[in-house]
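---------- Forwarded message ----------

FYI, see the Phage major capsid protein record below. Original note from H. follows.
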Amino acid sequence: MATSIDQAFIKQFEREVHESYQRMGSKLRNTVRTISNVQGSSTVFQKVGKGVASTKSTHGMVPVMNLSHSTVETTLQDYYAGDWVDRLDELKTNIDERQVIANAGAYALGRKTDELIINALATASTNVVADAGAGMSIAKILEAFEQLGEADVPDDGERYAIVGYKQWSELLATDEFTSADYVGPDELPFRGIQAKRFLGTLFIPHSGLPIDGTGVRSCFWFHKTAIGHASGSDVQTDITWHGDRAAHFVNNMMSQGASLIDGNGVVVIECDETP
């Protein structure tokens, strides 16, 4: 009986961690190219150059585009987030300690997933909106929009912009970002406060964007194909009973990595956050 109860506890805990990670763990994983179930310590993303169309004569040979091909290798790293669940403490608390720790572990790994993607974005330096002495503005947004267009970044619904919450508030204070006269009734703010579509791009506020010592926050506008995320193992949970502690040790773990594939597909927008 004791063994079957323990197995039920473990299965339920694993399900709760997985569901928590899928629900709220990562904001950015679905905004980039992803390879799952990677075998080995690294994987390779393919990068293809631009093709050029040309004419041919009657009965002539179809011209070959001679696309350039290159690869970007992404190395996977292993990450862990563990904690103890005391058996008798569960009986004494008014909260579900198991669910709290399951959420905490899943969220920690989700933040790590986003951190990997943001670190990859931060290596881009081709396109920069560098008026770092000012906050977020429509002028900066339009400049970044121009840079994406000039780089022939596809406007196919797969563009994403992640901004800090300070920049999100600044955008919500502008008519162009919030007024139905500009964005239409379906894209008004507060309808989906955690994301908003503007200029064909999904804008997402995020708390994990890098900020330097002078208070300048880096925000990123990018196409999905510009960043690659690889997963050798999605979130897994290992639960072990330790009789000497009268507690379960819950270990959440994953193996993931991320890399910049095409710097032309990313625009860095620098924004001042100093008062």
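H. also flagged this: The domain at 125-226+263-272 is CATH 3.30.2320 (hypothetical protein PF0899 fold).
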